[in-house]
Amino acid sequence: MPPGQAVRYEHRPLHYGPVPVFRPHRWDFRVMGATETLGSYRWTWEEFGTLPRTDSVSDFHCVMRFSVPGVPWGGVRALDLVSAAPPAPEVTHVMAWGEYGYSANLRLDDFLSEQVLLATHRDGEPLAPEHGFPLRLVVPHLYGWKSVKWLRAVEYMTADRRGFWEERGYHNRADPWSEQRFSYQEEPGHGPPL
Ligand SMILES: Nc1nc2c(c(=O)[nH]1)N[C@H]1C(S)=C(S)[C@@H](COP(=O)(O)O)O[C@H]1N2
Ligand SMILES: [Mo]
Questions:
Q1: How far is the CA of 127 from the centre of ligand 1 (A)?
Q2: What integer pLDDT is reported at residue 1 of this predicted model?
Q3: How many CA atoms does the CB half-sphere of 174 hold within 13 Å?
């Protein structure tokens, strides 16, 4: 376990705002921004189902100081998505976009980590609505707010830009192993504010 985390076996949902309703005929998933071709990519729900699938077990760390061990996810690896929709060579970061404008920024190398999934399943079952049905990002090596639920798009970026919580006082990178919880920790030599 990373420092300052307690194990929680029950996976209680946690998010800001309401749980969106899935409308399969209106739903799509997009890759946009600085793609190699400069065009954007769009998958319907049916088309998304044709992407290569991977199962992956990982621990989940929430900044609220609990961790859920050994969560079995199923879905599409970010690596396989990026092969289907190649970024321009200048891309350094991505923004993951959820319903209602929720967002989280990631370094491209964090996004392309082997365990990162665009998950449709958990425990062999489709995701529960409150856990992100039909699609969520899972970035197990960073704090949970980077794992955008109700994922609708990935934007390729040639410079960094902060996402929803990163603009509201949370850390830009969010590595739980070095307890990157709050944005003030990004300032060199800064301790917690008094
Ligand atoms: N769209 C969206 N995704 C989100 C959030 C949110 O508020 N909205 N909260 C994040 C936070 S803080 C955590 S810890 C995880 C929780 O995932 P879970 O509810 O499946 O445990 O979802 C993340 N993804
Ligand atoms: Mo969280």
A1: 13
A2: 94
A3: 29
